[in-house]
Design a protein that fits this description.
The structure holds two protein chains of two kinds.
Chain A: E1 9-13, E2 18-23, E3 31-38, E4 45-50, E5 55-56, E6 61-64, E7 70-75, E8 84-92, E9 105-110
Parallel strand pairs in A: 1-9
Antiparallel strand pairs in A: 2-7, 3-4, 3-8, 5-6, 6-7, 8-9
Chain B: E1 4-7, E2 10-13, E3 19-25, E4 31-37, E5 43-49, E6 56-57, E7 65-68, E8 74-78, E9 87-95, E10 98-101, E11 105-109
Parallel strand pairs in B: 2-11
Antiparallel strand pairs in B: 1-3, 3-8, 4-5, 4-9, 5-6, 7-8, 9-10, 9-11
Classes of the chains: A mainly beta, B mainly beta.
């Protein structure tokens, strides 16, 4: 079973920030939070991951609450190309550990 | 800079036929995975290989076999295809935090 809960769908206006929430209330101390996205029917694409500190890269920012029970992926200036299904995954960062994909959040960026 | 390459991209099989889906990665990763994705659903793990010479069952292994031929290649075999195996199949290789996925194989079993 997926260890995360995400809204089924969200809309965002082009150029605005997209904030995608994820609940992972049963996360263990050694589990990381990963975000992937899948555009149309392509293979999933890595976005960002973190353990307990907030993280930022060229694609997005990841905000993890202090109790680590939830997180938010932020796309600062959403474009039409960011329309995709976004997956939040918790996982121990070891070889052989599976990525469990739930249904994700379908983000629609609207012009 | 190919990353993860899957072949074929599309395939139609008749019920009972067999075939092998090929996956190769050029990133020298230890771990490789096979997933399937049915319409409107997330990915489900079929088999994985944590390192060369080892394979393990995932969530939905029935009807499939795998071979980790070497570090680069991880193949998925359907011995006797069934309509329930109609799906999109993704191969991934993993090193550290990132999983890198191929572009998928669309398989239809009629």
């Amino acid at each position: 079973d997926a260890k995360t809960t995400q809204p089924t769908s969200m809309d965002c206006a082009e150029g605005r920030a997209a904030n995608l929430p994820c609940n992972h209330s049963t996360i263990s101390g050694n589990e990381y939070v990963y975000w992937y996205r899948q555009i149309h029917s392509q293979g999933p694409q890595y976005i960002i991951h973190g353990l307990k500190n907030n993280e930022t890269n060229e694609m997005a920012s990841l905000i993890i609450t202090e109790d680590r029970k939830s997180s938010t992926l932020i796309l600062p200036h959403a474009t039409l190309r960011d329309t995709a299904v976004y997956y939040c995954i918790v996982r121990v960062a070891n070889y052989g550990q599976n990525f469990v994909f739930g249904p994700g959040t379908r983000l629609s960026v609207l012009p | 800079n190919a990353g993860v390459t899957q072949t074929p991209k599309f395939q139609v099989l008749k019920t009972g036929q067999s075939m092998t889906l090929q996956c190769a990665q050029d990133m020298n990763h230890n771990s490789m995975y096979w997933y399937r994705q049915d319409p409107g659903m997330g990915l489900r793990l079929i088999y994985y290989s944590a390192s060369e010479g080892t394979t393990d069952k995932g969530e939905v292994p029935n009807g499939y076999n795998v071979s980790r031929l070497n570090k680069r290649e991880f193949s998925l075999r359907l011995e006797s295809a069934a309509p329930s195996q109609t799906s999109v199949y993704f191969c991934a290789s993993v090193q550290g935090p990132g999983a890198f996925f191929g572009q998928g194989t669309r398989l239809t079993v009629v």
